[in-house]
Design brief:
Length: 180
Amino acid sequence: MDIKILLMTFFINFFYVTISTIRFMLTMKGYRLVAPLLSMIEITIYILGLSLVLNRLSNPLNLFVYALGYAVGVSIGIKIEDRLALGYIMTTVILPADTEEEKALPKVLRDNGYGVTQSHAEGLSGERLVLEILSPRKNERDLYQLIKSVEERAFIITYEPKYISGGFWTKKVRKRQKNT
């Protein structure tokens, strides 16, 4: 058992999968220059790691360490992508209408630099206020906390838009978000 080879196998596969996970996220978000460049590094590391394991298949520990590096790489890649928080989220907030929170929440959100579009809808239990909020993904947790601090009963749905063009968001909100 060669510890040096086992460590190299682990770290090579760990780096490969971490880069692969980040490259996949960048590809999905449309980073057309960075993703292909990262894929060149990714495939080079992959071939190195795979050749290490294939040349030493007689020892099952090599395969286990390779798989362990893969699993740890996926986990770390996801954590890195969460920290980078690339892209935007679209948050829909549904509130009971005709409450003080209905009037307060849009103002609080706007005062904190968020663009808010509000409309009225009909739910099972009556009239509802629907708020649509576009925000950088990095602000997602802060947005949730802000909403919940004003209205605990808010129903919140979030998704990631792929394409954004025009509107209030593109210039004024980005500027306001930087200043808060």
